[in-house]
Amino acid sequence: MLRSRAKTVHDRISLAGINQLPSVPQIAKLLCDDATGLKFNPVLYPRGSQLIVAYDEHEVNNTFKFGVVYQKFGQTSEEELFGNNEETPAFKEFLSVLGDNIELQDFKGFRGGLDVSHGQTGSESVYTVFRQREIMFHVSTKLPFTEGDIQQRKRHIGNDIVAAVFQEEATPFVPDMIASNFLHAYVLVQAENPCTDHTTYKVSVTAREDVPPFGPPLPNPAVFKKGPEFRDFLLTKLINAENACYKSDKFAKLEGRTRAALLDNLHDELHRQSQATLGLGQAGEDDKLENGGHGGLLESFKRAMRVRSHSMETMVGSHRHRSPGVGGGVPASLSGGGLPQSTSECTKSTFTPPVLSAKSPLKSPVKRRSGLFPRLHSSTDTPSDKHTRSDQKPVEICPLSQEVRSETSSNPSSPEICPNKERRATPLYHPPLPLAPPPASTVRDQVPL
Which of 71, 240, 263, 406 would staple 214 via disulfide (CB 3.0–4.6 Å)? Predict the structure, then answer.
């Protein structure tokens, strides 16, 4: 299907015998010879099909309004035609063939420009649904009439494109009787033997010269018996007459301008929405609400990548923070009693302090505090032994289910560290074990450090 400002062309192309699928410009060339040098862009907007369907529906009209004029014998002017207020039994019988008599107040169907709220266009009218098409009739005798105001009823019927003229007796009718820029076709119906079981209607059609022929064709003679067949023929003739009038010179120009404007609006809207889908433009408020207030497809992809990168960085940083090692583990208690912070497994980390010279006045970089039990010193210890003993830390006790591990090498070792897997609400303090106390005979006064 190819849509242009002039027309819409659609056809079925057989791919039999074609080795390679033709491109879009080639398909357009097959549909229309004038389609050369065109540039096609893909529609990326998810709801683009709805916009295209709305554009196509402007050519499909499912609502119609037709005028119905009652002409008495000898009437030859529009003032006389629109001045009739009585409805004869024959005219009422004809109206019952067209449709149903309905009340206009609060009417919910197609109103055809009539007032359904304040009664300014009368209290009732004739309405019907024919082959899924709504039809409202502007009946001249049912429209409000003010003496001397010849335009009051013409205001509605004069703006219709097709009108049906009912006659009880043979009377000449000339389309120029009603001066109108819109009325282009008339269907004349003359009743014979009205209000009887043998009622028939004689039908004739007249239209302006620039209106092409339209069906269904009139039989010869064009006389119909009252019944469903006559109703179907008459309503079909009225609908086809209006569709044919749109192809006249005047309506064709109006339709061409309307079609071009609608097609330009469709192109601009599809281009704007496609750009917004890629994140290169601004979407409408409805599309923002539908997409959760976010941007286009490209923006959503970028946002997802940023969230994933942030999650990866957080995961790596958390892993590094929990890795055991020098400066990376959980510090042990410096009070001489370690705090086991997990009930599962204890890991051991060894820290080797820098070796200090005997002559160096610097102190150990590790700050010590006295534990729950003061250390015992022997009077026979040398200053270097005292220094070595002071640098040693008590072994940290893990839960009772774990084996106590310690090292007794000459180099001091740091206490064992329990990984911080589960924190307890109330920590339990375990006293450290004293390191190799000297004999009781050499114990000095116990002075806490």
Answer: 240
